[in-house]
Amino acid sequence: MKMLKSFFAGIALASIALPMGAAGRDLLINDDWRFSLSSDSIAPSAVDFNDNDWRRLTLPHDWSVEFPFDRDNSSGNDGAYLPTGCGWYRRVLNVTPQQADRKMQLYFEGAYMKTDVYVNGQLAGSNPYGYSSFFVDITPFLHQGDNTIAVRVDNSMQKNCRWYSGSGIFRNVRLMETDKAHVGNWGVSIFTPYLTTADIKTRIVNESDRRRNLTVTATVDGRSASGECSIMPGESKEIALTVSLPDVKPWTPDTPSLYTADIELTEDGKKIDSVSERFGFRTIEWSAAEGLKISGQPVLLNGGCAHHDNGILGAAAYDAAERYRASLMKKAGFNAVRTSHNVPSEAFLDACDELGLLVIDEAFDGWRDAKNSHDYHELFDAGWQKDLDAMLLRDMNHPSIFCWSVGNEVIERDRIEVVKTARDLAGRCRQLDPSRPVTSALANWGKDWRTYDPLAEAFDIVGYNYMIHNSESDHERDPQRVMMQTESYPNDAWSNFRKAKDNPYIVGDFVWTAIDYLGESGIGRWYYEGDVPGEHFERPLYPWHASYCGDIDLTGLRKPVSHYRSMLWNEDGEHLYMAVREPDGYAGVVRTTSWGTWPTFESWNWPGHEGKDIEVEVYSHYPQVRLYLDDTLIGEKQTAEMKASFTLPYKPGTLRAEGLSDGAVQESTTLKTAGRPVAIRLTADRDTLLRDGSDMAFVVIEIVDAEGNVVPVADNQLEVSVSGAAILKGLGNADIKDEDPYFDGRHKAWKGRALAAVQSNGRKGKVAVTVTSPGLKSGKLRF
After folding, report:
1. Half-sphere exposure for 655 (CA within 13 Å, toward CB)
2. How far is 369 from 318, CA to CA, in rounded Å?
3. Cβ partners under 8 Å of residue 227, min gap 6
């Protein structure tokens, strides 16, 4: 395994000690780590270990995506043909005399897979499950002065995950410093059973050696409530307070209003701890008769499933990338996401709170029976409650989360003992959070669907994976059952929409998937006769290394099916869209797969097809549509299922589609044949980066003609350079067969487009992004 040396050239390797306590209770410590790939089980944990030649980096970090794709990597098609292995991280923390009697913890939001944390050569804590957040109490291992933190992350046991997991400390790390009497980890739970009151439960922990008489105060929007707490050494107590507000703005998907609860712990009038928790005043109701209501308003779920990776960035959960991914979904018309099949990052949930994107927060892919040889079945019995609690307690206060999910298509689903497991998991969810429904995604795959009734009864809303066609008979058998399709085929958009629209007991649909993702390679692809045939689960499909079943591709571009789906579910969104189906035989005889759609593009460039028939699809809210080519009427049609298709001989020019109501044109859209490529256009999602060494911008790269039209057949080789106060963090296109890696500055465009991720390097100043290609005018952008 060999990374491109030039990509990491010039990074300094000097060690930096951090004075703890500089930022109080919670300090982000993503910077100044040293890293090396090594399977060594213990030596790098030693204080005197020489790490001078190790690479210095800033977290989050996914080492797998820093390598080329290789068909021989043990992760195989599941893991995008990228390497895994073991890695070590080291860092220095400095303890001052003032911190001698403080509680010190490290908080890892996520490290994949098995993680061991050493402090000054001693094992301080471990965590076996890569998607669970965890705390490590490092207090007993610290001394005044410099302290060595060493973290071993082991992802060598393959295969474990069925999709791309990434490898390493792929989420944020924080240092938690508190008094020995403090608010417990994830110790604040906020419920809003009425939209004018916040019931706030705060768990207080006393790890000091004496009795403590404390006051707990909760403040929301200037209104406060307080309670007294006398707590003995080693004791934990929960204090319940209620804060009422007269003019609350409820949280809904359309109006995601957020509030902050400030919790203060005082002793003899002196503040000894404080925590701030963001939340929303939000209620959830569900029934077969009235469907789903959020804060009293009926909601139909136009949902998409989403894995956790960030495409060209791998699994590293940069805050800006997580928000970008959530915003892509919201802009595409989704109002809900299912975090398939693991707990997401906190930054992603924060973005969902802010954007109004409802969430099914999912804990596990499987339970006791294996889907892969080293998946969660090895950990289930010993770890399910700890890992489930970590999800519930960490994510409790996110108003976007409307439902907990405890599983997905579990293998043992047809055995009666699985019912007890389901009841145990669902019961634990309700014990910690009685306000939200619990689900699990059920599937059939050849069994008698009715045999799953006892399993379905364990859940408040039953998740149907590809099985919503059974809804009518299920409703007759169990009229009180509330259903949602937790996975569906992209091609079934119309029928799934009608199911939810016409039946109140079906609260929505979640397509597989919202966004293309790494791994599960080849799912949703189309291919040509002569390529490796079949579905993604039947055989390795290298060089396909990612999915193509998403409504949104790896560069953030919405595919035609995304526009169609959004029109179905959103009456106030776009009303007219046009795309063109690739003619069968144009580049080869087309073969589609179960999760795929016919290759369809926003393109009127089909060189070599002149005079031959081609099919144009028009998606429309309007009852009639007309199609013109160069102002010549091709035809007028009634829409059926919000679409109409026209077949015509291909000729370069300009297509124009019109939407009509009562014979009058309401709207039009055009699609023009692009000329030859002449220039590169750059468009960023922002014009300013925070100088924090982490913030990120996403730059869309387009190949355009002289009139500024994207050239949808362009595949020019691109060279990207970033100078000044940022670095190039990733570069790629949406072609899931392209074997060029994402970590260097060279990549081809695909269908006229690519995407670059540009990250702050922590310095103040300007950022210049330049993209060049032989024969094209360069694209330049400044931040």
Report:
1. 29
2. 33
3. 215, 216, 239, 240, 241
CB 180 within 8 A of CB 211: no
Q: Which residues of 71-80 are buried (b: 16+ CB within 10 A; e: fewer)?
A: eebebbbbbb
Element (H, E) at 336: strand 336-339
Give the separation between CA 174 and CA 717, rounded to whole angstroms.
41
Write out the two tokens for 774. 């032989």
Segment 287-301, tens digit of pLDDT:
999 999 999 999 999
- Given this model, what pLDDT does residue 449 score? 86
- In this structure, what DSSP letter does residue 502 have? H
Beta bridge partners of 122: 119
Structure confidence by residue, pLDDT tens digits, 307-351: 999 999 999 999 999 999 999 999 999 999 999 999 999 999 999
pLDDT at 100: 85
What is the secondary structure of 260-313 as a DSSP string? EEEEEEEETTEEEEEEEEEE----EEEETTTEEEETTEEE-EEEEEE-S--GGG
Across-strand partners of 267? 270
- What gap in Å lies between CA 144 and CA 96, rounded to an integer? 6
- Take residue 595 and report the two structure tokens written for it: 């999760």
Beta carbons within 8 Å of 428's beta carbon, 6+ residues apart: 385, 388, 389, 392
Q: pLDDT band at 39, cuts 50/70/90?
A: confident
Q: Are strands 461-465 and 438-442 parallel, antiparallel or unpaired?
A: parallel
Q: Residues 484-506: what's their mean pLDDT? A: 98
Q: What is the percent of the chain with per-residue pLDDT over 70, rounded to a whole number?
A: 97
- Name the CA radius of gyration of the chain, rounded: 27
